[in-house]
Automatic annotation (TrEMBL):
This is DNA repair protein RadA. InterPro entries: AAA+_ATPase, DNA_repair_RadA, P-loop_NTPase, RecA_ATP-bd, Ribosomal_Su5_D2-typ_SF, Ribsml_uS5_D2-typ_fold_subgr, Rubredoxin_2. ATP binds at residues 100-107. Residues 71-219 form the RecA family profile domain. It comes from the Bacteria. A motif (RadA KNRFG motif) lies at residues 256-260. It comes from Albibacterium profundi. Keywords: ATP-binding, DNA damage, DNA repair, DNA-binding, Hydrolase, Metal-binding, Nucleotide-binding, Stress response, Zinc, Zinc-finger. SMART domains: AAA (SM00382). The lineage of its organism: Bacteria, Pseudomonadati, Bacteroidota, Sphingobacteriia, Sphingobacteriales. DNA-dependent ATPase involved in processing of recombination intermediates, plays a role in repairing DNA breaks. Stimulates the branch migration of RecA-mediated strand transfer reactions, allowing the 3' invading strand to extend heteroduplex DNA faster. Binds ssDNA in the presence of ADP but not other nucleotides, has ATPase activity that is stimulated by ssDNA and various branched DNA structures, but inhibited by SSB. Does not have RecA's homology-searching function.
Length: 458
């Protein structure tokens, strides 16, 4: 009889070690090592391999020009946002991981997909909820669904594959990978080796049968997919579902995609009856605007490759305490401090005795440096209590000496502002070389310094 093999795994990052360690050398976390049984006695062959394909097929090398490439027939889903993020639909035989914090709406998104694919037989495997709970959710999302969707509440991979053989689904959804367990591994569900083994079995099934498989995975507080990073390497596509749970907007972002661009993203709104696609984000993000308030500036930002206009709100008020408060939501605090220092040092605004609060509307988190200019203008507008015209948009990065720097994809941003009926856009002078300005109706003002902007607007 073969011996049992045991190793220690870091439960945070999946690092493997032969002996127990107090601190993980890979992710520097303390006390994360747990002993797991990697191989039980007897030969370790997952069911799928023995029951379905018998012996493993040996591959032969082929010259690259002799390989015939067929344009894969993608499955187009009714969800245009999902199609976009996947790179144009679901690729047969692909393994897609959907990560996100608990409660963000992963199960809702997947169930909605299952219910809106009328031509495909879908198997929804849930290890988290009962059949009744899923039915209840399905009723909320779509009561008149004609989809042939099967629900299985099971966590043992062996039984799941048995059901798969009976039902022969054309799409499989697993909710979630952390609840599955394989009989070949002794450790508990959710542990690194279980997650890895279960994913390997699903991967094998997806590739051999050509059935696409969606796996839901939870995300830890640190923001990585719970359990191991290895999961991300094994799957074809990693989608991240994110957003603030208290806001209604959700972003589905492609983190890795073997079949498309990884800078795509989809936007949804969480409603009483499931998730609704948001095909024109700017209109919604700007719709609640009061034109005559100070401290508000509109930025033309880019999320992935999608341009959208967003409202930056600032509040500057005299500090009641010795140490003024600085607080940001949706924008990096360090970056705001830098911009405040630029205003203080270069232009003499006395901000060091004032509280500054900054908020990006809609609960989005923006990393695009192009919103610097709008942040700066919102702060000044609030400090001076002078509202900015409601028809202007800003798109520019601000440097340490108060210069307006060029940003990427300026044309797309201008086009978006133009489309939404804005009258003026302020951009960097270095951005407009070779640009056909007459193409747009919007007035494009190109500047090199922040002072010039102050002169024009205040
Ligand atoms: P859920 O899909 O269960 O999240 P996850 O699987 O990522 O943990 O969604 C959880 C939240 O979504 C829950 O707080 C309720 C809300 N929700 C709606 O607002 N409308 C709906 O139609 C549904 C189904 C859920
Ligand atoms: Mg869930």
């Amino acid at each position: 009889m073969a011996k049992t093999r045991r190793t220690y795994f870091c439960q945070n990052c999946g690092f493997e070690s032969a002996k127990w360690l107090g601190k993980c050398p890979s992710c520097s976390q303390w006390n994360t090592f747990i002993e797991e049984v990697v191989e039980k006695g007897g030969t370790k062959v997952p069911d799928w391999r023995t029951e379905k394909s018998g012996t493993l097929r040996a591959s032969k090398a082929a010259a690259i020009h002799s390989i015939v490439y067929k344009e894969e027939l993608r499955i187009e889903t009714p969800d245009q946002e999902l199609n976009r993020v996947l790179g144009g639909g679901i690729v047969p035989g692909s393994l897609v991981l959907i990560g996100g914090e608990p409660g963000i709406g992963k199960s809702t998104l997947m169930l909605q997909l299952a219910l809106t694919l009328p031509k495909l037989k879908v198997l929804y495997v849930s290890g988290e909820e009962s059949e009744q709970q899923i039915k209840m959710r399905a009723e909320r999302i779509d009561q008149s669904s004609k989809a042939s969707c099967y629900i299985l509440t099971e966590t043992a991979t062996k039984n799941i594959f048995k059901q798969i053989e009976q039902i022969a689904p054309e799409l499989v959804i697993i909710d979630s990978i952390q609840t599955l367990h394989s009989a070949h591994i002794d450790s508990s569900p959710g542990s690194v080796s279980q997650v890895r083994e279960c994913t390997a079995e699903l991967l094998r099934y997806a590739k051999e049968s050509g059935t696409p498989v969606f796996i839901i995975g939870h995300i830890t507080k640190e923001g990585s997919i719970a359990g191991p990073k290895v999961l991300e390497h094994m799957v074809d596509t990693v989608l991240q579902f994110e957003g603030d749970r208290h806001h209604v907007y959700r972003i589905l972002r492609a983190v890795k995609n073997r079949f498309g661009s990884s800078s795509e993203l989809g936007i949804y709104e969480m409603q009483g009856a499931g998730l609704r696609e948001v095909s024109n984000p700017s209109e919604i993000l700007l719709s609640q605007r009061e034109s005559s308030l100070s401290g508000i500036a509109i930025a033309a930002m880019l999320e992935g490759v999608r341009p959208m206009l967003i409202e930056v709100q600032a509040l500057v008020s005299t500090s009641a305490y010795g140490t003024p408060q600085r607080s940001t939501t949706g924008f990096e605090a360090k970056r705001m401090n830098m911009l405040l220092a630029v205003l203080e040092k270069r232009f003499g605004f006395r901000l060091s005795i004032q509280d500054v609060f900054l908020n990006i509307a809609g609960g989005l988190r923006v990393e695009d440096p192009a919103i610097d200019l709008a942040v700066l203008m919102a702060i000044i507008s609030s400090q001076q209590d002078i509202p900015l015209p409601s028809t202007v948009v800003f798109a520019g990065e601000v440097g340490l000496s108060g210069e307006i720097r060029a940003i990427n994809r300026i044309e797309q941003r201008i086009a978006e502002a133009d489309k939404l009926g804005f009258e003026t856009i302020y951009v960097s002078k270095y951005n407009i070389k070779g640009l056909d300005l007459n193409r747009f109706k919007i007035k494009i003002v190109a500047l090199s310094k922040v002072e010039e902007l102050f002169q024009q607007l205040f």
